[in-house]
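Whiteboard transcription, Tuesday session. T.W. wrote the structure tokens on the left side:
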């Protein structure tokens, strides 16, 4: 069974948080017809929430009685898995994802009359709408605190990781506004003669074109916002799950090197795989590599993979930025002990002619929430400062000469 992204809106090329899709089975007939959610326990574990919360949510959303006994989770009436999966999206949005960075690794806190999600990734506390029926249930039945919680935590998203390379991007921030309305922010006049879809595509294409001209810092990476990807997919006739290839590459590399990065396939085999997946000239490919090739020995490993990296990055700006973005994610979210090594890492990239001085200076001078939450980006930039400053001064000196 293949896993799906916990946040199904997330079009990140390399999303780490996965869950099994809901499996359901309709039982009985007539008035007694009901639906068993066969794997609710697994799905809930992936979300780090008690199964009862999810079941109650379904009940209130679908207006049906629910029933729970001996690990059997039942809803009255016939509901197919797709319907439940869609409803689950609502649960995830309201009760799981951090409202700021959209990371699903959150815990529900009950404080006085307030319910909030406490994000492990960015520290943000997001309020949970108290008007929801489930909210009042949670108030009365808070997630168990103390010891039990730790055990449960370990079994959540982390245990369920199929991919690796931690993510949670900006796009998420980009989508925040849409989340409220469930629509794109583009204004489309439906009363016009033009076919609705055509207009929408045109509008999105126009938006895309605008973005590619105006390169401000926050937009400097590939625009991974849902609208942009959809527009691109429509224009190119690509399918929306074209991200599957990036995932495939990332999961393959992580699987091969799960014990040690020394077990990674050779650069030649990695290159072959990239060709095979037809993602050779994609900046996202480089981003995935930045998130999967390294561990604590990153400085040495940059040198080991120099051939492959140089061949892919080609000192091109877009690729360079994707590589730095991937590193930022890996270092800022996955392996934070490397933050103090950031100057050394940048030095290696510069020294080996992998990333140009200009790109490093520009990257280091502006905080961007494109790849990681803003606070994380700040932290990484702060660590990078000594090296970036050194580069700038060296640059000025050579200008004076
Ligand atoms: Zn967060």
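and on the right, the sequence the group agreed on:
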């Amino acid at each position: 069974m293949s896993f799906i992204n916990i946040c199904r809106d997330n079009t990140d090329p390399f999303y780490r948080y996965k869950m099994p899709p809901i499996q359901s089975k309709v039982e009985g007939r007539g008035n007694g017809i009901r639906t068993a959610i066969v794997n609710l326990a697994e799905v809930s574990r992936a979300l780090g929430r008690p199964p009862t919360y999810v079941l109650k949510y379904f009940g209130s959303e679908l207006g049906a009685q629910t029933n729970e006994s001996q690990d059997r989770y039942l809803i009255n009436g016939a509901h197919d898995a797709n319907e439940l999966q869609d409803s689950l999206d609502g649960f995830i949005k309201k009760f799981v994802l951090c409202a700021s960075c959209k990371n699903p690794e959150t815990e529900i806190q009950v404080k006085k009359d307030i319910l909030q999600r406490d994000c492990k990734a960015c520290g943000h506390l997001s309020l949970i709408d108290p008007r929801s029926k489930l909210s009042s249930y949670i108030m009365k039945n808070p997630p168990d605190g103390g010891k039990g919680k730790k055990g449960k935590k370990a079994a959540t998203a982390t245990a369920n990781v199929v991919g690796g390379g931690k993510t949670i991007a900006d796009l998420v921030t980009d989508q925040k506004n849409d989340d409220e309305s469930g629509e794109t922010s583009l204004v489309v006049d439906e009363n016009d003669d033009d076919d609705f879809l055509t207009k929408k595509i045109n509008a999105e294409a126009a938006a895309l074109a605008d973005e590619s001209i105006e390169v401000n810092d926050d937009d400097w990476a590939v625009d991974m916002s849902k609208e942009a990807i959809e527009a691109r997919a429509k224009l190119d006739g690509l399918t929306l799950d074209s991200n599957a290839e990036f995932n495939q590459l990332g999961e393959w590399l992580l699987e091969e090197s799960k014990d040690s990065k020394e077990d990674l396939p050779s650069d030649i085999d990695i290159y072959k795989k990239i060709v095979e997946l037809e993602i050779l000239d994609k900046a996202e490919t480089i981003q995935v590599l930045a998130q999967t090739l390294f561990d604590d020995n990153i400085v040495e490993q940059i040198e080991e993979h120099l051939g492959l990296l140089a061949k892919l990055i080609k000192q091109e700006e877009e690729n360079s930025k994707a590589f730095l973005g991937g590193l930022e994610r890996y270092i800022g979210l996955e392996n934070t002990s490397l933050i103090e090594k950031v100057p050394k890492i940048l030095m290696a990239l510069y020294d080996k002619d992998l990333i140009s001085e200009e790109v490093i200076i520009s990257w280091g001078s502006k905080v961007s929430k494109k790849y990681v939450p803003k606070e994380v980006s700040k932290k990484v930039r702060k660590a990078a400062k000594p090296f970036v400053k050194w580069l700038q001064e060296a640059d000025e000196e050579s200008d004076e000469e």
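Someone added at the bottom: Residues 98, 100-101, 103, 119, 121-122, 124 surround zinc ion (CB under 6 Å).
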